[in-house]
Design goal:
The chain is 31% helix and 22% strand. It has 260 residues and is α+β, with helices and mostly antiparallel strands. It binds flavin mononucleotide (FMN).
């Protein structure tokens, strides 16, 4: 079973070509932003595409990165706001990687002039990469699959889906997401951050949303339907985030379910 190609291609790009993405490319990104699937559609969000000069204005710093463009993510401050932004942005990142663009999350920035009613969450830097994106899976530095899984032995389908989540980017490559397996249900949870500071917890909540986007895109690639939902009484070895139920019938019609 193959992995969805943009998952393998994607890498954090920190060096960019002097050529800048065309207006056609920027328009295609804006169009894609309008079609992203949220984890929670009751949380209002704003993804602003800005150029380097506008970003310098927003941060008050000229040397943020070499990137010519940025996507600044804001959200209403409620529920799974950080996971939701990670989930949305990573769908975009995979799409942009498929277009040959280089992208990198910037977790350490703070920005001015946050729109009223929103909080700033994170920024994506992007541009045309100086080098190439990843050529293969051997280029990833990740924890072994077995160390990420708990519970039952995953079958081939579940293994492949967790493999895709394993390749997701995470702040400082700390890979906080763990997966409790129960047949074709995967309960996603988060280990404790190395430093119990608020900023770290938030970054790792974004990491979990990102890993969930990899789960959804890989399942769709494999022709598998499923849904994300919050289940009751799930016991994990960390902070429970959400469960994904693969091959689900999608007929329970609970509005908080995210179906794919
Ligand atoms: C939430 C988040 C925040 C990140 N913040 C930064 C950052 O501030 N600067 C940076 O160079 N990389 C940042 N990264 C990129 C990670 O360092 C990178 O994903 C990780 O080392 C794995 O490498 P890969 O993305 O090439 O697979 C961030 C990634 C995530 C998911």
């Amino acid at each position: 079973m193959a992995l969805y190609e943009p998952i393998i291609k994607r890498c954090s790009v920190r060096s960019y070509s002097d050529k800048i993405p065309s207006n056609v490319v920027i328009d295609a990104i804006r169009e894609k932003i309008g079609r992203l699937k949220p984890l929670d559609n009751t949380i209002r969000i704003k993804l602003a595409v800005v150029n380097a000069a506008e970003m310098a204005e927003l941060t008050g710093t000229k040397k943020i990165s070499q990137a010519p463009y940025y996507i600044v993510a804001y959200s209403e401050n409620k529920g799974m706001a950080y996971q939701n932004i990670g989930f949305l942005l990573e769908q975009l990142v995979l799409n942009m990687s498929a277009m040959g663009l280089g992208v990198c999350y910037l977790g350490g920035l703070s920005v001015k002039n946050t729109p009223p009613g929103f909080i700033y969450i994170i920024t994506l830097a992007f541009g045309i990469p100086k080098g190439s994106l990843r050529q293969g899976i051997s280029e990833f530095k990740r924890r072994p699959l077995e160390s990420l899984c708990r519970g039952e032995q995953p079958d081939e389908t579940v293994s492949q889906i967790i493999m895709a989540a394993r390749l997701a980017p995470s702040a400082m490559n700390l890979q906080p997401c763990r997966y409790q397996i129960e047949g074709h249900k995967i309960h996603i949870f988060r280990g404790s951050p190395p430093l119990a500071i608020k900023k770290f917890v938030k970054l790792q909540q974004i990491d979990c949303g990102i890993a969930m986007a990899h789960i959804m895109e890989q399942a769709k690639f494999m022709g598998i339907h499923g849904k994300f939902c919050k289940m009751d009484n799930i016991k994990t070895g960390g902070t429970y985030e959400m469960s994904v139920i693969l091959d689900s019938e999608n007929n329970e019609d609970k509005s908080e379910n995210v179906e794919f």
